[in-house]
Design a protein that fits this description.
This protein is mainly alpha-helical. The protein has one domain: Winged helix-like DNA-binding domain superfamily/Winged helix DNA-binding domain (Arc Repressor Mutant, subunit A, Orthogonal Bundle). The protein is built from six helices and three strands. The longest helix is centred in the C-terminal third of the chain and has 34 residues. The radius of gyration is 21 Å and the shape is globular.
């Protein structure tokens, strides 16, 4: 028996080594899979792709042009990861040439207001953050 005063993460590891139990998600725990979700939605290309897709579905080339600076490889990886997580839906149309469009899933639409606000906050706060960066850099450049 592990005492209740042991840290939660240690108690969790000990218990899971002997038998499988399900605990509610807690991103502060190293073993929690929700950290992978936070890592994905915290990536700049995921955020920007979601904002680019907020009004309508787009083809790969349209997303590539909208997200200046992203490589084809990185955009492909980002869209695949987002599709795997259920954040986007990939629609293939049987046309010549083949047409593929990417759109936000219902799950992504629940996250969209937060992502849009995060992008807008970054844009609003840019000058202040750059000022703090310069002050910090001067302070520690000696």
């Amino acid at each position: 028996m592990i005492p209740s005063w042991f840290p939660t993460s240690i108690r969790y590891l000990k218990v899971t080594m002997s038998k499988k139990i399900m605990l509610p998600p807690d991103a502060f725990l190293k073993v929690c899979s929700s950290r992978a979700v936070l890592a994905r939605i915290g990536q700049k290309w995921t955020v920007l792709a979601m904002v680019a897709l907020q009004d309508s579905s787009l083809r790969f080339g349209d997303i590539l042009r909208r997200l200046e600076g992203v490589s084809q490889k990185m955009l492909t990886q980002t869209l695949r990861a987002m599709e795997r997580d259920g954040l986007i839906e990939r629609s293939v149309y049987d046309e010549r040439p083949l047409r593929v469009e990417y759109g936000l899933s219902p799950l992504a639409r629940t996250l969209l207001p937060l992502v849009v606000e995060l992008k807008e906050w970054a844009e609003r706060s840019l000058k202040t953050i750059e000022t703090h960066n310069r002050i910090f850099d001067r302070k520690f450049s000696h």
